Amino acid sequence: MLTSRPRGTEDILPEEVGRWYLLENTAREVSRLYGYREIRTPIFEHTELFNRGVGDTSDIVEKEMYTFTDRGDRSLTLRPEGTAPVVRAFVEHSLEARGLPVKLFYLGPMFRYGRPQAGRLRQFHQFGVEAFGSRDPALDAEVIALAMDFYTRLGLKDLELHLNSVGCPACRPAHREKLKAYLRPRLEELCPTCQGRFERNPLRIFDCKSPACQEIVREAPTVTASLCPDCAGHFHRVQEYLKALGIEFILDEHLVRGLDYYTKTAFEIMVKGIGAQSSIGGGGRYDGLVAALGGKQVPGIGFGLGLERVLLALETQGQEPPPEGGVDVLVVTAGTGVDLAAFRLLAGLRAAGIQADKDYLERSLKGQMKYANRYPARMAVILGEEELARGRVSVRRLDAGSQEEVPLAAVVDYCRKMKESGW
Ligand SMILES: [Zn+2]
Ligand SMILES: [Zn+2]
């Protein structure tokens, strides 16, 4: 127990952290390009927030939450997703008062008690955006474009954008009746979960993975076919904006987000070759969520995507992770009486923005050079007793094996220029 991590969690070791920097930096960079600002909310929230904000008929709330009682007898839950906390913060801090739209992004760990499998962990990481305060279909297209841009910058290929509209409270009730009329004669054939959904939330039957249910809903009336004029017009405009950006999409009438506050645009991004569950992100409009969580009638749209899934897709497509872990310079000492000068030089290199380190195990000169190669360091700056007395040091390029003498006073500048010119 003491030396094994909990099931469904992962350690990100130093040699793997480079790919996480790449994901996080790309997420921040793209978000800022589109005018989204970062928000950081707590890892845990009141359980009630997720019961209401994610929906108490959802799989997440029914089966997957890490809920605990704290010492003050409050029910708290490790956040299973990012939208509800961001909406809570939006309402709590009256962010709409700063002028709409409010465009936010988040990055961080989420927690779901699911069955661990490739790219699906119990502690996993999400990148998401939420935009509040506008019903403009251009904003829907922007949010989708931002997600696609993120994937593309990372080098992901073979992406498929699935797009649908799930209507609104004006057009859904009529569809709901049509759907129930269609399903009623075959109710017995639905899986037990969907039989339970039939009254509460029949739209979610489209989401069911059971082959029997999939078969039944294949011919079922879709909400897309019952859109009210407002929803139909909005959906049409979203498609026009996406086309204007050259973003290809597949219309997918079976793509639903089965909760009442989800409205209009729904989208999901798939990538080929990472197994049956090829979704690597999705989102949509939630014009009813802010009000459902106690705020004003403020519309919203966003997406969330799992970064472990993105890494898995990148690996499957043969993308090499960026190298990580070396330093620019290892300061090496030869002989006695040079330790203080070496330590000062180390500080000088670091102050100049050069990644630098030294040996701390009293290795021999040969041992230090081995250490420099293993680290790996690009260069070794060698301080010898005799040279130092002449105010000079040796600079050795470890890749080429070439070596030259440089004045001690000029060596920091020498290294900086090397670094700036890409070594
Ligand atoms: Zn509608
Ligand atoms: Zn089912």
UniProtKB/TrEMBL annotation:
Belongs to the class-II aminoacyl-tRNA synthetase family. It catalyses: tRNA(His) + L-histidine + ATP = L-histidyl-tRNA(His) + AMP + diphosphate + H(+). Residues 23-322 form the Aminoacyl-transfer RNA synthetases class-II family profile domain. One of its GO terms (molecular function) is histidine-tRNA ligase activity. It holds the Pfam family tRNA-synt_His. It comes from Moorella thermoacetica Y72. This is Histidine--tRNA ligase. The keyword Cytoplasm applies.
